[in-house]
Specification:
This protein has 10 helices and 12 strands. The chain is α+β, with helices and mostly antiparallel strands. Bound molecules: adenosine-5'-diphosphate.
């Protein structure tokens, strides 16, 4: 029985099987070898020469550790030690030095034998280079994202102070000197004050968006019923103005960041009460249902509805489907909702029929997976 038979567990000598195995051995693009514990390769295929460039005649007498990169030798010796003790190894990655001095990254798997151990090596240099490139890009993107978020936060924060000044002096002007102005002057003053109020809303929404984007949600058990009650109390005046009826169904307790979830509900319920045809009081329903591994929160209304073509883009920042005269707003609310859903590992989407109403669904997984970070590879 030759070594190859031993390696694959063939018990009887079969010349035809040996012939097949010899051919397969020669054809393999992976490096295959039976390596001796004396440090020399006993039996190895042509892939060694094809990929590393060392002539067969050289490899027959050259200790295999000599072609392992010097920095990886001691770890490789440890792995060989494991094989000598009868263990198997899988995906051990080390650098091999080619005859021209270049370096290839090889992933080795091995198993023990009586007089030798058996190894299979695959060139993973390109895969590692790609993973390395991906990880670097992800790092760069994360850096740029963080900078943009910092910028958005700082800009909106720093705009607040001068705006407060403009608004308070406009107020002062209105109180002190409105009577001295003619009709046109008073109109200009009113327009300027309206502009300041709108800008205040914009800045507040931008700050909320940056906060949601920057802060990791701190999850805790949230009684959704109590949370909706709080939100309805905050929205009280706005809801009363629209004459909306709000129906609240059975709501569970779930794990979430309470402030963010309240913000999401406030935006959705506020929109549901706002976007209805003039002269008709809207009905808003808040409900929840369980699906496998998730809770789906739904805010439904019988308002103006949304065309199918707009149902995706309304979640983008600053998208508004109507003029300010028809419905007030900044176009940031749904972008905040989407961010909150994503920060919880979930998503938000809408089902709607124009003229009949909309249902905004927020899917919140029970145990959201951590956002995927590409595996970092030590690669030089
Ligand atoms: P805002 O309410 O400040 O305009 P949002 O980001 O909350 O901004 O919403 C974006 C746009 O999506 C709204 O301007 C409106 O056109 C549309 N929209 C949002 N909610 C509803 C709804 N419940 N019914 C109809 N249209 C809606």
């Amino acid at each position: 029985m030759n070594r190859l038979d031993t390696a694959i567990g063939t018990s009887a000598f079969d010349p035809a099987a040996t012939e097949h195995l010899t051919r397969l051995f020669a054809m393999s693009p992976d490096l295959l070898a039976a390596a001796g514990f004396d440090g020399l390769l006993k039996h190895f295929n042509d892939a060694w020469e094809q990929q590393l460039g060392w002539p067969r005649a050289v490899m027959e007498t050259k200790p295999y550790l000599d072609i392992v990169h010097p920095e990886d030798r001691s770890e490789t010796e440890l792995q060989i030690g494991r094989l000598a003790q009868g263990e198997t190894i899988a995906e051990y990655v080390c650098r091999m030095v080619c005859v021209d001095g270049s370096v290839r990254w090889m992933a080795w798997s091995g198993g023990p034998g009586d007089e030798a151990f058996y190894i299979v090596g695959r060139d993973v240099s390109e895969r590692l280079a790609m993973e390395h490139e991906l990880a670097q890009r992800a790092d760069r993107l994360q850096g740029t994202n963080a900078e943009l978020q910092d910028f958005a936060y700082t800009a909106s924060h720093d705009l607040s102070e001068p705006l407060r000044m403009v608004a308070s002096f406009l107020g002062l002007l209105e109180r002190r000197s409105a009577e001295d102005l003619d009709e046109k002057g008073r109109e200009y003053l009113r327009l300027a004050s309206d502009g300041a109020v709108r800008m205040r809303h914009l800045i507040d929404d931008l700050l909320t968006y940056s906060r949601v984007a920057n802060e990791e949600p701190r999850r805790e058990q949230v009684d959704l019923h109590a949370l909706v009650d709080d939100v309805l109390a905050v929205l009280g005046p706005a809801i009363a103005e629209t004459g909306a009826t709000v129906e609240v169904g059975e709501l569970p307790t779930l794990e979430a960041e309470p402030t963010q979830l309240a913000q999401l509900l406030q935006n959705l319920i506020g929109n549901a009460a706002k976007f209805h045809p003039p002269g008709r009081s809207p009905t808003v329903c808040v409900s929840a249902r369980r699906t496998t591994g998730a809770c789906v929160l739904t805010v439904a209304d019988d308002g103006i509805g949304i065309d199918e073509a707009d149902q995706e883009r309304i979640f983008a920042m600053f998208t508004r489907l109507h003029g300010r005269d028809a419905y007030a707003g900044t176009g940031i609310g749904l972008a905040i909702c989407r961010r909150i859903a994503e920060r919880h590992g979930g998503r938000i989407y809408v089902e709607s029929t124009p003229g009949q109403g909309s249902m905004f669904h927020t899917l919140l997984p029970d145990a959201p997976a951590a956002p995927g970070t590409p595996r970092q590879q030590a690669f030089a």
